[in-house]
Automatic annotation (TrEMBL), chain A:
Designated name of the protein: Multisubunit sodium/proton antiporter, MrpC subunit
Organism: Micromonospora gifhornensis
Chain intervals for the UniProt region annotation (Disordered): 113-153
Pfam families: Oxidored_q2
Subcellular location: Cell membrane
Presence of the UniProt keyword Cell membrane in the record: yes
TM stretches of this protein: 6-23, 30-52, 72-93
Family label: Belongs to the CPA3 antiporters (TC 2.A.63) subunit C family.
Automatic annotation (TrEMBL), chain B:
MrpA C-terminal/MbhD domain boundaries: 597-661
Pfam families the UniProt entry points to: MbhD (PF13244), MbhE (PF20501), MnhB (PF04039), Proton_antipo_M (PF00361), Proton_antipo_N (PF00662)
Signal peptide positions on this chain: none
Na+/H+ antiporter MnhB subunit-related protein domain location: 790-913
Keyword Transmembrane helix appears in the UniProt entry: yes
InterPro entries: CPA3_Na-H_Antiporter_A, MnhB, MrpA_C/MbhD, MrpA_C/MbhE, ND/Mrp_TM, Proton_antipo_N
NCBIfam families (UniProt xref): PRK12644.1
Species per Swiss-Prot/TrEMBL record: Micromonospora gifhornensis
Places the protein is found: Cell membrane; Membrane
Residues passing through the membrane, by range: 74-93, 105-123, 129-146, 158-180, 200-226, 266-286, 293-312, 318-342, 363-382, 402-420, 441-466, 486-513, 557-577, 589-606, 613-632, 638-657, 677-695, 733-752, 793-811, 817-837, 849-872, 892-916
Identification of the protein by name: Monovalent cation/H+ antiporter subunit A
Domain NADH:quinone oxidoreductase/Mrp antiporter transmembrane: 125-414
Keyword set includes Transmembrane: yes
């Protein structure tokens, strides 16, 4: 079977644009990246099957029909992407509602460990920790601001 | 034996309830369990004395050749007696040691009994793997018991330290067991001992096993965890860290000794390790001011001595070793119990503060004195008999044995010295120290200690009887000469002389030590704890550095790493796999090129767009372009679905984007954008390459060539794609609609803030139809503030037509483009149009049902179709063809899989409705309430 060059190019472009958006921090952009990537993946599946007449028995001879299997797979994929889009949109809205922006934040806990590594220190674990365990909220809040300022790139 | 272990486990489970019921008196009841163990062991005394082991085997997993093999020989019998007897007495002691309102008492009793059960299992296991399991169980329970008071930092740290050290050793030991077991083809020690490997293999295995034994029994360099474990309550120290758990290592050495004593690393490791431990422990004990720590270091020292004697590897030494195990368990448990009593009666364990306790509590002093005499090796105590035997055994060995003997004698001198220090510190009248007030000591708490002390005397006095009991173990060592016998009086032997020497030397050393100045100079040059601390610190640092390097906490970073790997590895393979296929075609029809250009331009612009709305429209354009390509490919179902999905997506985006800022937030770092684009382009290129190679490499006939025939004959439909969805690959579809339900639920739970709002009907008080404001056909709602009346009326007129069309699509889909997905999307769009025209009131009018109900009904219908087919004798989701004649409609050709499609339809409708309710109606409501709040604030 010979590949259709047009499909190959479109797959490449869709994936490239999708991945570029996926690596962003804005959830809306990530979402658009997911949609483009999904379209690219669907087309990639379609590249694996023959093009032709619609696969409806009786409308065309069987030899001229397009391959129905990738089509069935793509059809479910399209609808799943719809569900995923809705979910990510809800996530973006929620993030905006709670934080005033829809950006993917750095993990605060990971930031703490990185700061420890930078300072060449060991964590205060449970065993060696103080008896009167203070709530670390103030600390975390500071860290999350640094994360927001310094890491948003 | 298995039953006894099971009874321990069961008791551990119900112990907290018993404690709640009866308070601390429950401990007497619980003490019956180890007591029963002791009784059981005693009934088997006769059999054991004749050297016959008690064996019990239960097949566990026959496929894996796993069985619970238990075996009680002389050594195990002795350990069972100690574990059961000391366990019962310590529990009885604990019943007076703790208060009923101690919050941790229930847990303590449960863990204590569980520990006793694990220890019992350990000493009677014949299977090495089973032994390992019990071994680690004792470690875990000991961890829980040391950490009895989790609020204390010292107790947490000590527990963790003990756990880490002993588990590390245990793992090494497991490796050693596996090495031996794999070689012998069995894990039963009785079999393994007969089939030992040789050479370096055996040496490595033994060193690994010794690591486990030495770490468990706190032998140098692992000694440091045992004094730390004294953070536990005193009964725990008396049982685990004197009589039971620390003896596990000694037990293992004694168990394996007869078979492996001649192998090279065994004896040197044990002798050297044991001697060093003996000196360090004894030395440190002399420096302690806390009575409990003094005893703890004494235990360390004694464990070293036990290792030396049992490691010597001769018959007489082995006999002395087991006698010493018995004697040590009796006197050390007693001494710990007396320290607990002193602590309770006076409130301190510091020997600098105690004075005159002996005169105020004479009974206590007598009990402690008996035990101390045994520890120092004075006749007629058990300790004396055992030490005599050990000295005698070493006296008749070679030069190395004599060197060891010298070490043992020096160790004895230390032992006598710290014994005197203990007695003096606990009970003596000290000049210059105010006499301590001592609360009366009840007989109930003293009895268990007294029983143990008296037992120590009895063992000494009845030494010949004990000798007959323990001799079968010693006889496992083959020896030419007639062996030594335990006895109080052997005549005026060199051993007796050495004993006298040790006692005299100890007394002298103690006298010297009382001078504060001398004690200050006795500092230990090194300590295992320092190495432990350094190790733990280094591991922590390594973990922090490693985690800090790899866990950046940034999602784009992680994704980037994954994608770069994808570019490098599959991309590299792609390049290496050349030559690539030569045959290709540019397009099927030139129109594909037009659609492709549209997609490409839209996608590239979407990636560059700065405004959310622009980006969204461009993504939509790309999607419509894809739909066009589907049409040209010959995939009408795909094209239809894609068009509809794109439209629903745009509606969703509009609903959400009206609440979000128009532009994407500014990127402070421009350079990272180039990196992202570079990764994107690389991934795109690799994917395109894979598409090209994969499509070109295809040789086989597609599986789907038979689909058209199958679709007509079995699926009863002409639209192959639709039949594939609802019949041939119906399981896929089933999974997919389940995902849709989950996604819909997720959306709703993200938007609705309160569970009570989750009745996704969106009814708002006053908005719903009542007797007076029931909306009439085509009249617009009074709440419609900003909507177009004309639009509302038109959508109402169109609504039913669109829904009807969707139902037509649903049922015609089997033979023509359409089907459940497309039909559901059409119906969903009809709802969306109603909502866009008239807001949430209009949506509620159009669909007066809960979205969750629609979703659930859809799933029910879909699964029900499959189950019905199964109940009728077919496979899950198998379809059947029905042909029948109806009076008006004429001939009806019906396929049962249409019901499945109805389920799909309902779920898609439910999904869209759910999205409209969440992202539309609920967001409107939240926005309005917030607006009201703002206005209220302004008014105030």
């Amino acid at each position: 079977m010979s590949p259709n060059l047009t499909y190959v190019i479109v797959v490449g472009v869709l994936v490239a644009a999708g991945v570029t958006l996926l690596l962003e921090r804005s959830l809306t952009r990530v979402l658009m990246g997911v949609i483009l990537l999904g379209n690219g993946a669907n087309l990639l599946l379609l590249t694996g099957g023959r093009a032709g007449a619609p696969p409806i028995v009786g409308s065309a001879p069987q030899e001229e029909m397009s391959d129905p299997l990738p089509q069935a797979m793509i059809l479910t994929a399209i609808v799943i992407t719809l569900g995923m889009t809705a979910f990510l949109l809800a996530l973006a809205y929620r993030s905006w509602h709670l934080n005033g922006h829809d950006e993917v934040q750095d993990d605060v806990e990971d930031r703490r460990i990185m700061d420890l590594a930078d300072r060449d220190e060991v964590p205060d674990d449970d065993v060696d920790g103080d008896d009167d365990e203070e709530s670390p909220t103030t600390d975390e809040r500071q860290l999350s601001t640094t994360a927001k300022g310094g890491r948003a790139g | 034996m298995l039953v006894l272990v099971a009874v321990h486990a069961l008791t551990a489970v119900i112990a907290p309830a018993l404690v709640r019921l009866w308070g601390r008196h429950a401990l007497y009841v619980v003490a019956l369990v180890p007591g029963a163990t002791l009784a059981w062991a005693l009934t088997h005394t006769g059999k054991v004395r004749s050297g016959e082991p008690v064996v019990e085997t239960l097949t566990w997993v026959p496929q894996l050749d796993l069985e619970l093999a238990l075996r009680m020989g002389t050594l195990s019998w002795l350990m069972v007696v100690l574990v059961g007897g000391v366990g019962a007495l310590v529990l009885a002691y604990s019943a007076r040691y703790f208060r009923s309102d101690d919050p941790g008492l229930g847990r303590f009793v449960a863990v204590f009994v569980a520990f006793a059960g694990a220890m019992l299992g350990l000493v009677v296991s014949d299977d090495l793997l089973l032994l390992y399991v019990f071994w680690e169980l004792t470690t875990v329970f000991s961890y829980l018991l040391i950490g009895y008071d989790p609020a204390k930092r010292a107790s947490r740290r000590a527990a963790m330290q003990a756990l880490l050290v002993t588990t590390l050793g245990g793992l090494a030991m497991l490796a050693g067991f596996v090495m031996l077991g794999q070689h012998a083809g069995s894990y039963r020690w009785s079999v393994v001992a007969e089939n030992l490997p040789g050479g370096g293999y055996l040496a490595v295995a033994l060193v690994l096993i010794l690591l486990g034994a030495l770490s468990k029994s706190a032998i140098f360099p692992f000694s440091f965890w045992l004094p730390g474990a004294m953070a536990a309550p005193t009964p725990v120290s008396a049982y685990l860290h004197a009589a039971a758990m620390v003896k596990a290592g000694v037990f293992l050495v004694a168990l394996m000794g007869p078979a492996v004593a001649e192998v090279t690393p065994w004896r040197p490791v044990l002798l050297v390790g044991g001697l060093i431990t003996m000196f360090l422990g004894g030395w440190s004990a002399l420096r302690q001011v806390d009575l409990k720590l003094l005893l703890a270091y004494g235990t360390v020292s004694q464990l070293g001595l036990l290792m030396v004697v049992l490691g010597a590897g001769t018959r007489d030494a082995a006999l002395a070793g087991v006698a010493m195990v018995l004697a040590h368990a009796l006197f050390k448990a007693t001494l710990f119990l007396t320290v607990g009593i002193i602590d309770h009666a006076t409130g301190t364990r510091d020997l600098r503060e105690l004075s005159g306790v002996g005169r105020r509590a004479p009974a206590l002093a007598v009990v402690a004195g008996l035990a101390a005499a045994s520890m120092a090796g004075l006749p007629p105590m058990a300790g004396f008999v055992a030490k005599e035997a050990a000295v005698e055994a070493l006296l008749h060995g070679g030069t190395a044995d004599l060197a060891v003997l010298a070490g043992v004698i020096f160790g004895s001198v230390l032992t006598v010295a710290y014994t005197l220090r203990y007695l003096w510190g606990a009970f003596a009248d000290k000049p210059g120290v105010e006499p301590t007030t001592v609360r009366p000591v009840s007989w109930a708490i003293l009895t268990p200690a007294a029983v143990l002390a008296v037992a120590g005397v009895a063992v000494g006095v009845l030494a010949p009887a004990v000798d007959r009991l323990l001799a079968p173990y010693a006889d496992l060592y083959r020896s030419a000469e007639p062996g030594y016998h335990l006895a109080l009086w052997h005549g005026l032997t060199p051993a007796l002389g050495l004993s006298v020497l040790a006692v005299a030397g100890g007394a002298g050393l103690f006298d010297l030590m009382r001078r504060e100045r001398v004690r200050a100079t006795m500092r230990l040059p090194f300590d295992g704890a320092v190495a432990y601390k350094k190790c733990i610190n280094a591991i922590d640092r390594l973990a922090v550095e490693l985690t800090g390097r790899t866990q950046r906490g940034s999602l784009p970073f992680y994704l980037g790493v994954i994608l770069v790997v994808m570019v490098v590895l599959p991309g590299g393979a792609l390049l290496a796999g050349s030559p690539w296929p030569q045959r290709f075609h540019l397009w099927d029809t030139p129109l594909q090129g037009v659609a492709a250009a549209m997609v490409v331009i839209a996608a590239v612009m979407a990636a560059r767009a700065l405004r959310r709305l622009t980006a969204m429209i461009l993504v939509g354009v790309a999607g419509y372009g894809i739909a066009l390509m589907f049409v040209l490919h010959g995939a009408p179902d795909l094209a239809l679905t894609q068009f509809l999905v794109e439209t629903v997506t745009i509606v969703m985006f509009v609903l959400v984007l009206r609440r979000l800022p128009a532009k994407f937030s500014e990127r402070p770092i421009r350079s990272s954008r180039r990196g992202r684009v570079a990764i994107g382009v690389a991934v795109g290129a690799v994917t395109a390459g894979m598409a090209y190679v994969a499509a070109g490499a295809r040789q086989a006939v597609p599986i789907s060539v038979d689909f058209p025939d199958g679709a007509v004959s079995y699926g009863g439909g002409k639209n192959v794609v639709n039949v594939t969805l609802v019949d041939i690959r119906a399981w896929d579809t089933m999974g997919e609609i389940a995902v849709l339900v989950v996604a819909a639920t997720g959306v709703a739970s993200l938007i609705f803030r309160h569970a009570r709002d989750l009745g996704r009907r969106g009814d708002i008080p006053g908005d719903g139809p009542t007797e007076y404001n029931r909306p009439r056909w085509l009249t617009t709602g009074a709440t419609a503030r900003s909507q177009s009346v004309i639009l509302q009326v038109i959508t109402r007129l169109l609504f039913h037509a669109i829904v009807l069309f969707s139902i037509y699509l649903l049922f015609s889909g089997h033979n023509a483009p359409g089907g459940g997905f497309a039909a559901g999307l059409v119906a969903g769009l009809a709802l969306a149009v109603r909502y866009l025209a008239g807001g949430r009131t209009e949506l509620n009018g159009a669909a007066p049902v809960d979205a969750g109900v629609v979703l659930g009904a859809g799933l029910f219908v879909a699964v029900g179709t499959g189950v019905a087919a199964m109940l009728l004798g077919g496979e899950f989701l198998q379809s059947a063809l029905l042909d029948f004649h109806l009076p008006v409609l004429g001939h009806i050709h019906f396929v049962t899989s249409a019901f499945f499609d109805v389920g799909v339809y309902l779920i898609v409708v439910g999904l869209v409705l759910d999205i409209l309710r969440s992202l539309g109606a609920e967001m409107d409501r939240q926005h309005e309430t917030e607006g009201d709040e703002v206005r209220e604030k302004e008014l105030v």
